[in-house]
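Reagents: none. Just compute today. Formate/nitrite transporter family protein.
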Amino acid sequence: MTSDQVQPLADDPSAPDDALSPDEAQEVRRRQASSHMVVHEAVRLQGEEELARPVVALMLSGLAAGLAITISLLAELYLRMRLPDERWAELVYLLGYPVGYVIVILGRLQLFTESTVTAVLPVAARPSIAGLARLARLWSVVLTANLIGVLIVVALMAGEIIITHEQRLIAIDILQKLPAQEGFKTLTLGIPAGFLMASIAWLLPNAKGSEFWVISLLTYVIALGGFSHVVTGFSQTAFLWLNGSMTVADMLLDFLLPALAGNIIGGTGLFAVLAHGQMRGDSEAADEKH
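Predicted 3D structure written out:
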């Protein structure tokens, strides 16, 4: 038997069936999805790369992500303007919501909610004051850059530079009709948004050519659920603020800060901790077996 042939173990239920030829067994192993430990390591290494990036690189990447994510707002508004005011139309115009995310994530731009899992795993794997400091640096720089990028585009919209006067009035009317919610409700709606965004980062290593559909499906669910995403939602509230339909206090206290807290809880507190805990449990079990 050559060294590249697979010799399945009779007492190993995870090994391919003995009836398979060595080539068939090798093909089965090739087609298997990566284990969660492999995915964990892939995401952790991505996080290490993000934590090591210079501030200037993080700022520029985050700024580009903020500019690009507003395409979600524009795409959704353009679809709404062309559809009747019917209940079913929501299923169609919300298809515009994933557009900005596809650009940002496939373009490997720095979006705050992705780093709630990618950048946290290295810190969870090797806890230290220095690691927490690097995480705080990453989060603060990326979030600030994201919001600045969004604000630039929204200001251009409010000034009728990249949209027409009629489109601006329609956008104001549409956004004013969105259900008003208080800070605590925004926080609770931010938790599933954070969880879903962290899920995207976790699923992409196994997507194998289906990255577009993973991103589109999960962000479409965020839109359908009316969940609060701190960066995308800021584009809506900032637009209303610049048009005099919302105060700074309402924007900060009823949306931005609660959505930020909810996204961190969902992405870090729920997803990253559970994913890391699962990996640690299996790793310890494997060590005991050996």
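The chain is about 75% helix and 0% strand.
Action item: order primers for follow-up constructs.
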